[in-house]
Design goal:
Layout: E1 2-4, E2 17-21, H1 27-38, E3 43-47, E4 62-66, H2 71-80, E5 86-91, H3 106-115, H4 120-125, E6 129-132, H5 135-140, E7 147-148, E8 161-165, H6 172-188, E9 192-197, H7 200-205, E10 212-215, H8 220-227, E11 234-237, H9 251-258, E12 262-265, H10 270-274, E13 282-283, H11 288-300, H12 302-330
Parallel strand pairs: 2-3, 2-4, 4-5, 5-6, 6-7, 8-9, 8-11, 9-10, 11-12, 12-13
Antiparallel strand pairs: 1-3
Helix pairs in contact: 6-11, 9-12
Length: about 325
């Protein structure tokens, strides 16, 4: 349950609380409902399906269902309906008619039916307002006298710090090790976002981590182009003590530097052998809390990270020169 209190909302005369009931954070809320209710300087509480406040807290409050009406909330609202100041249901797709979803996957159609379509009569019995996103929906459901809610641009963060780990399937242990580290770092700093490469297993592992993106594994030519995309800041290279890891080289240092980031590296690794701690990267004992602190420090200290990146570029050039000298002897 997320409590969003606009500045000044504690002052006398400000309207009451609005509970937004949503499956999870979603564009429907951010583009339509949240801007609409925030415009009135209400105290806004975003609730998931399982986030049920005490019934007494709903006295004089408004409840807005975003697309879906979960059973637990329907039971609660029905019990306190005479005490609610307002009740509304918002939709930005035609979720109230079964036929409108024809051609969509059957699992999704059943979800719409269970949480929206079959709730239509219940909503009308509860005298709920209908809020819609388009004139089309407003006209189609004109008998309900719906209110048109136009979208506003979702607020964006212009100061995002992207941390990433692009390990392959052979790094499954490191991907698992990073999960609680990343979750804690993202919890402590809302500007952070995380990017990790992996398939369905990785997606399942990181599903509950807010602001974590799982990118599908790709062939090397595509990955090289992917590295050239900007806006990465901190690269992670954990390395557990496993036989397969002992033969690895320091190419991850090249990948991280190439995409404009500074790395955090495990000790006793090939990368740590070429990194000067605090100069062109960080070498941090592989302890979860130490990595959380290192991530936060490196993401937040822009001047130091910029200086370290410049040193990392010089180090990469030096390593390339050293390799070229070896090639001469090889051929």
């Amino acid at each position: 349950m997320a409590d969003l209190i606009p500045q000044g909302s504690h002052q006398k005369g400000v309207p009451g609380t609005v509970y937004l009931v949503e499956e999870q954070c979603n564009p429907s809320t951010d583009y339509f409902v949240l801007p609409a209710v925030s415009a009135g300087r209400h105290r806004v509480v975003r609730c998931g399906f399982a986030d049920l406040p005490p019934s007494a807290d709903l006295d004089g409050a408004a409840v807005v269902f975003v697309r879906y009406v979960p059973p637990a909330w329907a039971k609660l609202v029905e019990a306190v309906r005479p005490r609610l100041r307002r009740l509304a249901f918002f939709m930005d797709d035609d979720v109230l008619e079964v036929g409108a979803s024809a051609g969509l996957p059957w699992r999704y159609r059943f979800k719409l039916a269970r949480l929206a379509t079959w709730r239509s009569s219940w909503l009308q019995r509860q005298a709920a307002e209908l809020w819609v996103s388009t004139p089309y929906l407003q006209l189609k459901y004109s008998g309900w006298r719906p209110r048109l809610v136009l979208p506003s641009p979702a607020p964006g963060c212009t100061d995002v710090r992207r941390i990433f780990y692009h390990g392959t399937a052979s790094h499954a242990a490191e991907i698992r090790w990073l999960r609680p580290v990343v979750e804690e770092a993202l919890r402590r700093d809302e500007r952070l976002a995380f990017e990790v490469a992996g398939g369905r297993d990785v997606h399942r592992l990181y599903r509950g981590v807010q602001r974590a993106t799982v990118v599908h594994p790709m062939k090397w030519p595509a990955y090289r182009a992917f590295l050239d995309m900007p806006w990465r800041h901190v690269g992670l290279v954990p390395l557990l003590d496993m036989p397969f890891n002992r033969a690895r080289s320091y190419t991850k240092f090249f990948d991280i530097t190439r995409c404009g980031a500074v790395g955090i590296y495990a000790p006793d690794s090939a990368c740590a052998d070429v990194i000067r701690h605090g100069v062109d990267g960080l070498v941090v004992a592989q302890e979860p809390e130490a990595w959380v602190e290192a991530i936060l420090h490196l993401a937040q200290d822009e001047p130091q990270r910029s200086a370290m990146f410049g040193n990392a570029e010089k180090k990469m050039t030096g390593l390339a020169d050293r390799a070229q000298r070896g090639y001469a002897e090889l051929m």
